[in-house]
Amino acid sequence: MKLDPTVCVLGEDVGHYGGSYKVTKGLAEMFGDLRVLDTPIAENSFTGMGVGAAMKGLRPVVEGMNMGFLLLAYNQISNNCGMLHYTSGGQFKVPLVIRGPGGVGRQLGAEHSQRLESYFQSIPGLQMVACSTPYNAKGLMKAAIRSENPVVLFEHVLLYNLKEKIPNEEYVLCLEEAEMVRPGEHVTILTYSRMRYHVLQAEKTLVNKGYDPEIIDIRSLKPFDLHTIGNSIKKTHRVLIVEECMRTGGIGASLRSAIIDNFWDYLDAPIMCLSSQDVPTPYAGTLEDATVAQPAQIVAAVEQICQ
Amino acid sequence: MAFRLARASSQLARRAARGRYGDPRPWLLGSAPPVLLVSSPAAAVGGRRGFCSVRRFTAGDSSAAAAAAVSEDDETENGFTDGDQVLDFPGGKVSFEAEMNFLPESKAERINCYRVLDDDGQTISGSRFQEVSKEMARKMYSNMVTLQIMDTIFYEAQRQGRISFYLTSHGEEAINIASAAALSIEDLVLPQEFANQCFGNKMDYGKGRQMPIHYGSNRLNYFTVSSPIATQLPQAVGAAYSLKMDKKDACAITYFGDGGTSEGDFHAALNFAAVMEAPVIFFCRNNGWAISTPTTEQFRSDGVVVRGQAYGIRGIRVDGNDALAVYSAVHAAREMTITEGRPILVEALTYRVGHHSTSDDSTKYRPVDEIEHWRTARDPISRYRKWVQGNDWWSDAEESELRKTVRQELLQAIQVAERAPKPPVSELFTDVYDQIPSNLHEQEQLLRDTIMKHPADYPTDVPI
């Protein structure tokens, strides 16, 4: 926002309140309450406002207080945000960033535990990335703002408290690139967002048991970084996808299909995918834990694949 | 609580005698509100002009702003003083009454409609309107005629199967042309460009991607039309927000029908525009019909103009078939949005003479004689023509000349557009993103391969 006066923030309680997860804390004091705009509660409409402002030359960052609420904005996101560059014949750009906290949290209830990457992945014209560390959050956010395309940046409710030493300088990460978290030989584990940490926990057990997993945080949910993913599969020949989406129609489902289309010959075993069940996320803690893939399951899955 | 109420009624009586209430109707049509309930006293200081009334923060000035937001005045602009029995809730002070009174669902009288020309094209005595020059008057008239002929010819073209879809604005030509004329837009969409868009050919600025009449032009500051209803309203607020940020001397305008006012986006866009003080004109073409749904089944309010008040937006109801009235109203609205930094709602009453679109036959749900009446006796073009000719600014000879020329030009445009090549298959994949990503490259290649292998299954006149 310091570098470019066209960058602005729109959302509920993003101003003096600093946002539901304090992502925009301090910005209203620095840039004023027009550039950091508190909107009334109407997601479809402030997203539409963001589209209109972007078409006029601003670079708005629209915040969904929880990603799940952006389902109300689906009309504007699908029919306008994703389409207007195309239907206008390239005359109008929509350099919008839509971001917010999503994913399964700690007992937030079904409506606050949505995984919108499932629902949005079909929309042509959109790009989707998921950050998972303070380092990649900064780099991907900057890249998303600079992009001429509309980008949906998925943050996770449970990852805001992570602490990491990151460079003060400007750096921009590539929106379409996956991140090699741990190189290995035995199996390719593809994951993103919060599940990265469940995988890393499973990694400890796996290494103790003598396995050498290659862990890739795919980061780019649309499009997939098939280059990095492909190179990994060509090396390990075994794939495990660990995602938080539901089984049906999630990122894992699309990723499996893309891998089969492109790397069938390199697979030595069927692709395994650990997803959440096709149920609304329950409130009770034990039930909630049971709906997401846990490290123990990840370990078991790797053992099964590597037989 | 009971004590307060008992004291209140005697206090109310005394206050009424002193005349301290001022006008009980906070908004008077056409004049600035004398009493404005605001959400924080800081607003009274900040004033209406400028970024936001409720100004918590100016850039880089955190401590001063925080202090200003907290202070409470004893005497606000409402004239209440400490000790008066008023209710002090978030949103401002309100005086209370012990009698239980429900606000009526509607006023006894409908809101009046602003009109300047009578049915015979004579200016109504005592009417006030924005003067137009002879040149502007003639231009407006010839554009209205052009629009009418364009609609007729393109509608016929759809009937002949030459384009897939069309939607006319029969009966609403005054709204279209007069409102645009008031907004300092010199150019309109040119006939050939229009034909190209309808035929989706190679020269279409939209590259053949949108259905007919869903055009857009960066050059003319006209956002590409999108089918879902009322989605353009919040976008207009966003565009106005952008103009406000850049401190431009300009406003945004958005058009929608009576049906569009039922959409959630209408509600939220008006609310946003009011809160943000965005310079946008909301122009509602209330033509009585949303496909087959008459306004009696669309809403129960007195039309659309009264809704502005609910959001704190100034509005006017105007005779949409009176070109001069529409012109004057939009001219004034534009001034207000820009100089006062506020949104304006204009409700133009009119009638949809044509069918909703080429997919509709409105004789199925409304009487033919009703349509005929509006097509002939209430036609906005002939009414305006009478006024222009009455000023000796137009003649019958010019009329037939214009109609002949325009008709020829449009038929020519259609022929050229029809014969022009369609966009190549490569344009199927561009502009989805700024650069074509690899998956779309693959899909394009796949499509080309398929076309090469089975050329008989694909049209020969579409270049690859």
TrEMBL record, chain A:
What's an example GO cellular component term for this entry?
chloroplast
Task: Provide the GO MF annotations for this entry.
Answer: metal ion binding; pyruvate dehydrogenase (acetyl-transferring) activity
Source species, domain of life = Eukaryota
Might you give the EC number(s) for this enzyme? 1.2.4.1
User: What's its top-level EC category?
Assistant: oxidoreductase
Task: Give the keywords, sorted.
Answer: Chloroplast, Metal-binding, Oxidoreductase, Plastid, Potassium, Pyruvate, Thiamine pyrophosphate, Transit peptide
Question: What is the catalytic activity of this protein?
Answer: N(6)-[(R)-lipoyl]-L-lysyl-[protein] + pyruvate + H(+) = N(6)-[(R)-S(8)-acetyldihydrolipoyl]-L-lysyl-[protein] + CO2
Q: What range(s) does the Transketolase-like pyrimidine-binding domain occupy?
A: 1-162
Cofactor dependence is on: thiamine diphosphate
Q: Which InterPro entries does the entry mention?
A: THDP-binding, Transketo_C/PFOR_II, Transketolase-like_Pyr-bd, Transketolase_C
Annotated localization: Plastid, Chloroplast
Task: Briefly state the protein's biological role.
Answer: The pyruvate dehydrogenase complex catalyzes the overall conversion of pyruvate to acetyl-CoA and CO(2). It contains multiple copies of three enzymatic components: pyruvate dehydrogenase (E1), dihydrolipoamide acetyltransferase (E2) and lipoamide dehydrogenase (E3).
What NCBIfam families does its record include? PRK09212.1
Kindly state the subunit structure of this protein.
Answer: Tetramer of 2 alpha and 2 beta subunits.
This one is known as: pyruvate dehydrogenase (acetyl-transferring)
UniProtKB/TrEMBL annotation, chain B:
Origin superkingdom: Eukaryota
Cofactor field = thiamine diphosphate
Answer whether the UniProt record assigns the keyword Secreted to this protein: no
For this UniProt record, the keywords arranged alphabetically read as follows:
Metal-binding, Mitochondrion, Oxidoreductase, Potassium, Transit peptide
Compartments where found: Mitochondrion matrix
Reaction catalysed by this enzyme: N(6)-[(R)-lipoyl]-L-lysyl-[protein] + 3-methyl-2-oxobutanoate + H(+) = N(6)-[(R)-S(8)-2-methylpropanoyldihydrolipoyl]-L-lysyl-[protein] + CO2
**What GO cellular component term, any one, is given?**
mitochondrial matrix
Q: What is its main location?
A: mitochondrion
Any idea of its EC number?
1.2.4.4
Every copy of the Dehydrogenase E1 component domain together lies at: 143-425
Signal peptide per UniProt: none
- SUPFAM superfamilies hit by this protein: Thiamin diphosphate-binding fold (THDP-binding)
One Gene Ontology term of the molecular function aspect = metal ion binding
Coiled-coil regions listed: none
Instruction: Kindly indicate whether the keyword Glycosyltransferase belongs to this entry.
Output: no
GO BP terms, alphabetized: branched-chain amino acid catabolic process
The UniProt entry's sequence similarity note says:
Belongs to the BCKDHA family.
Assembly and oligomerization: Heterotetramer of alpha and beta chains.
Protein name as catalogued = 3-methyl-2-oxobutanoate dehydrogenase (2-methylpropanoyl-transferring)
Organism annotation: Eleusine coracana subsp. coracana
